[in-house]
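Weekly structure sync, notes
Attendees: PL (lead), two postdocs, one rotation student
Agenda item 3: pending single-chain targets
PL asked that the sequence for the first pending target be pasted directly into the notes so everyone works from the same version. It is reproduced below exactly as submitted, 205 residues in total.
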Amino acid sequence: MTTLYGRACPAVPLVEALERAGFTEATALLCSPQDFRVARFSQGRCRTHTGAPAPLDTVFEARVFDGHRELRWLTFAGQDTQCVLLSEEPDALPAEFGSPLPELHALQTLPAHYLLWGTPAPKPIRTSDGDWTVLRTPRIGSLHVPAPPPPDGQRLRLAAREYVCVEPRHGNAHVAEERLLRLEPAEPPDPEAAAGPVPEREHDV
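Predicted structure, written out during the meeting:
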C-alpha cells in the first residue's frame, strides 16, 4: 500500500506558489498561449537554457517536479487558480503551502514513461545550473530541456508514477492519479520488440 499526500493552495500567482512549495532544484513544464517551455527551477527562480528567467506572467498551466514532489498550478478566466502539491512523504509538504487534501491509498504503483519527440543533439548546452539538451524534429522544430544528452542511440523520456486504486463499490482497479518524476534517457531500441506493442507513450513536447 502506497499513500499519496497532498495540500491545496488558495488562489495565488505562480511565483508565490513556487515559493510556498520550497523547491530547491526542479523541472518545470510551462504552458502559455504563445508556446510550451521546459525550464529549470534553481536558486528560487525558473530559468531557460540561456540562463535568463523564464517568463511566468503569461503561463496558464504549470507542472513542477523534483522526483519527490509535484506542484500543479492552473489558472482560469477571472484569474482564479487551482494549485496542489503532491508527495508520498507528508513531511515534504510545507504546512504553510495550504490545506491538506484527502489521502490517496494506492494498492499498487506502476511506472509510466512518455517518450519526448525529437532527436537529442550530442553536444550539451552548459549553464551554471547544469546541462541542457536540444531536441530537434521537423514536425515541431527545437525544444530545450534541462537534462544532459543521453547516450548515443537513445532519446529522452519523461518518467512518471501511476497510482492504482480499487473502486470501493464494484472492486474495479483503476489509475486514480499520476505524478511526474524526472527527465531521463529512454531505453535503447530493442529490435525483437519492434513488431510488438510500443512500450513508450509519445509525449508531444
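Discussion points:
- The two ends are 33 Å apart (CA to CA).
- The chain has two domains: 2-101, 108-203.
Action: rotation student to compare against the earlier draft before next sync.
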